[in-house]
Write a structure and sequence with these properties.
Helices cover 36% and strands 12% of the residues. By secondary structure, the chain is an alpha/beta fold. It has two domains: 48 residues, no CATH class; 270 residues, Inosine-uridine Nucleoside N-ribohydrolase, Chain A. Strands 1-7-6-5-2-3-4 form a seven-stranded mixed beta sheet, with helices on both faces. The chain has a two-stranded antiparallel ribbon with strand order 8-9. Strand 2, helix 2 and strand 3 form a beta-alpha-beta unit. The longest helix is centred in the middle third of the chain and has 16 residues.
């Protein structure tokens, strides 16, 4: 079963809508839906709605349309340093790389918020390391450089928005747009706001993480999924199963599960292993999480490629051990 919600499943309002009898939006009586506490309450109340039956991907994954990628990774979320390269590798192996028309990364608009939970390595900043990894991904897998945007560079922000608006406006029933949402949603919101409303029904936002949906970058200044579902009624939201359960493994067991990659005959696969190492939260000192393999966001690419929501590290071993794919898609 696929999980999609549209604004029709979310009612924003007073006690008869989002909140039950005797409940208020905020302890202070604030009814502004842009207040973080209010939006968290809305999200929690309607979480069950995110499991309503909706679109069904073909059993073998998408067969038409385009793919956009929107990710953080510039601070705290070091898992993205491995997840995007693995995700792009999945699309490459499944002959879908030609469908990628937009890659935006380092999209966390509030890096200072996480200053007490994250630290850059001496002489190296996480956003800069991620930029180097993305450049390596472009070189190794053949992403179109003109479709790649680094939100940490001020000059890229407007270009990224313009490109995503262009791709949204090109969407149709025969050529839908799937947006892999792996980070903050402010830039996605801005692109949707500038897009042609008649094209939005052909856009599907794919997420697996409540953290990305609302908690990670929540503030009164930055829009999240509640704002998107409220303000853009026809955008589809496909919330798949949490991919951490199969593509995140803590301690030595995780590294043992991908150790085979170090000896792969394919240099791209060996390089993916180094990306997973660079994304290890222990390397960046995040909240004393300890060492782990976390490429969970890559599960969304696997979902688009196969229609399956239950990928694990063994599935990726089978995929990356297979023969090379044919020429890229579109």
């Amino acid at each position: 079963m696929k999980h999609v919600v549209t604004i029709g499943l979310i009612v924003l309002g007073g006690a008869s809508g989002v909140f039950g009898a005797g409940e208020t939006e905020h302890s202070s009586g604030n009814t502004d839906v842009r207040t973080p506490a209010v939006r968290r309450a809305i999200y929690a109340r309607h979480a069950a709605g995110f499991s309503q039956p909706g679109i069904d991907l073909p059993a073998g994954g998408i067969t038409k349309g385009r793919i956009a990628i929107d990710s953080d990774g510039n601070v705290f979320a070091s898992d993205d340093l491995g997840a995007i390269p693995f995700g792009v590798g999945i699309l490459w192996k499944k002959n879908l790389l030609g469908k990628v028309v937009h890659v935006g990364f380092n999209n966390n608009p509030n890096p200072d918020r996480w200053a007490n939970a994250a630290k850059d390595q001496p002489g190296l900043k996480q956003d800069e390391e991620f930029a180097a990894i993305i450049a390596g991904t472009v070189d190794r897998f053949g992403l179109k450089p003109e479709s790649v945007f680094n939100y940490a560079n001020a000059a890229d922000v407007s270009k990224a928005t313009q490109n995503l608006v262009k791709e949204i406006n090109a969407s149709s029933a025969d050529d839908p747009l799937y947006i892999v949402e792996a980070g903050a949603m402010k830039h996605l919101y801005d692109a949707l706001a500038a897009s042609d409303a008649s094209r939005r029904p052909f856009v599907t936002v794919v997420s697996h993480s409540g953290w990305n949906d609302i908690e990670c970058h929540d503030s009164a200044q930055n829009e999240n999924i509640v704002d998107i579902l409220r303000d853009f009624p026809n955008v589809k939201f496909d919330h798949i199963a949490d991919q951490n359960r199969g593509l995140r493994a803590r301690g030595a067991a995780g590294w043992d599960a991908i150790a085979w990659m170090k000896d792969s005959a394919d240099p791209r696969v060996r390089w993916l292993h180094t990306c997973a190492q660079k994304g290890d939260p222990n390397r960046w000192g995040f909240l004393n999480l300890g060492t782990e393999v976390d490429i969970s966001d890559a599960g969304m690419y696997y979902y688009l490629s196969t229609g399956r929501e239950d990928a694990d590290l063994d599935d990726l071993k089978e995929l990356f051990s297979a023969a090379e794919p044919g020429p890229a898609g579109r």
